[in-house]
Amino acid sequence: MASLPIIRERVTSLQMQQDSVACALSNRNSLLVSRLLAKHISVGDEVTFTVPTEDASQIEVLITKTGASSAPRHVYQATIGHVTHPKQDKRKEYFVAAEVRRGSLGINSIFLPCEVLREYFYCLPRTNDKADHPNLYDVLRIPASASMAELRVAFKLRDLELKTAGASRSQQVTLERAFNIVGLPELRACYDALLADLEAPVVFPYGGFGSLLVAGEPSRDGHTFFARRIIAFSPDLRRRLLHVPLRRCEFYDDRALCRDVRHKLEFWLDPAATHTLWDRTWNHWKHLLGTKIEVEGTFVQTGRSANGVGNGSL
Amino acid sequence: MTWETALPSRLEIKLPSDFQQQVETARTTYHRLGQYSRALEQIRLCLEHRALERAELERMCSELRLPGDIDVAQISWRADYDPFFYRQLSRRARRTYLFREEYIFDVEKAVVVETPQLGHATYVFAKPRNMDSFLALYTRITKDDIRRNRNNAAERLGFLGRVIHGTNPRAWLKEVRQRVGERPDFATSIRE
Questions:
Q1: A96 versus B190: which is more confidently predicted?
Q2: Do B43 and B116 have their domain in common?
Q3: I need a surface site. Which of A137, A182, B154, B186 has the fewest CB within 10 A?
Q4: Which residue, A120, A105, A69, is CA-closest to A227?
Q5: Who's near B187: CB < 8 A, 6+ residues apart?
């Protein structure tokens, strides 16, 4: 496939449209970008892109700022795929690498220091001044020792409280993000380790896959982008309705892991979601259980399983 | 390889109305199978050498004083079997035989041998004139003999072919229905 020509132009003006923003360029063409990305573009900045797709949030674009501030001089938006597990760099600091999908600007991967993930996804500040900074359990208003079912009940109750009180969208999003971290056992373990030691390595939640907007610097050879801050991440979401045989679940005392090998889907169940109690002994006779459960939910792509049809570790 | 995971915040689960009853039935069956394991082992030993029809198995169970609520199909059932394959063939079968870990279904126009497990294939044979002779021959040879037609085994059994379970159960069912000579039934295919 022939590579697309790379366009590099200065922004001469910005014009708001219904769902997006049109950036007028010095070559008299214009580029449609999302409102979020437009917040990081100023007149005079240089934008680099190839022929954009229809969806403004999916285009790969590199913005080079012209202002003389201490902030990172580049903002980069790309569709990412799998994100690696944390590794140590030469300075013994942890980072993860996200593969850039369908990239055409020459950038193959985005390096994200773990402190950047910690700040954006796990809502923990970079410095050690944790005073007055609510952790995710505080957001859900539940102690850190809560079971999976208790977490779900707390989330539902708090969600209802916020809706009744007419709380802002950002408060609801914060609540949902908190539950989506501590409501998944692997991520909860990661978060609990972080609470104990702020320098502990962290994983990119759900393994990547989505649209990532970061601030930072490209490497000299232009193949890597070193992110210093995540501005936004929007995962690829898919709504699904399926019927899963209960015998495909692995039952633990307070939760169950359902895995559909055929469709490559997995999800965790807790007694609050099913209104049923179980225990590990269900594993002994689940193969005699013909019943199916109806599952409706939003699914996100996850990283490659550790051992093929793996243990689901992220 | 990528998988998909549900966001905990956006997951809704609905259980069937008879869920508790099904759980109780499965738990009771497990208990019963354990309780009468010695007698069941005796039957399994017989099934290693002979294919036995469901009615005959029920009679044997009765002689061994097994309670009548034990489904004889459970005698050969294994934890990783998929009930879908069994159920689809069972509802079409006039008679069902158990042999080792297999189920032999005598359907209207064919005989189908099934190991209801992913990774296995469904073997389809032409309807024999005499089922006893078919079973006598089938239980003496291996699947490999049939595939390679050793001593004309495939010809003598009227082997029509095999259907791989694959990843799409609907595709498997469609193929099996064609192989067993079933007429396409639009209403049924929509339901299934």
A1: A96
A2: no
A3: B186
A4: A120
A5: none
**A301 contacts: CB under 8 Å, gap ≥ 6:** A206, A207, A208, A209, A235, A236, B2, B3, B4
Partner A, chain B 38-97, Cβ-Cβ below 8 Å: 74, 77-81, 83
Same-domain check for residues B83 and B94: yes
Could A176 and B9 be called an inter-chain contact, meaning their C-beta atoms sit closer than 8 Å?
Answer: yes
Domain residue limits at B21: 17-75
Q: Say if residue B69 is in the same domain as residue B82.
A: no
B41-58 confidence digits (pLDDT tens): 999 999 999 999 999 999
Interface confidence (ipTM) of the complex: 0.88
Same domain as B151, residue B137: yes
Same domain, B63 and B102: no
Total structural domains in chain B?
2
Q: Which of A182, A291, A294 to mutate to test the interface with B (most CBs of B within 10 A)?
A: A291
User: Is B73:B119 a contact under the CB 8 Å cutoff?
Assistant: no
Tell whether B147 and B163 lie within a shared domain: yes
Q: What is the DSSP letter of A280?
A: T
CATH fold of A136-196 reads Helix Hairpins (1.10.287)
Alpha-carbon distance values, A305 to A67, A108, B57 (Å): 43, 22, 44
In this prediction, residues A112-134 reach a mean pLDDT of 79
**DSSP summary character for residue B152:** G
State the Cα–Cα distance between residues A225 and A117, nearest whole angstrom: 15
Taking phi first (over 0 means left), then psi (-120 to 50 degrees means alpha), and beta for anything else, what does residue A62 get? Answer: beta
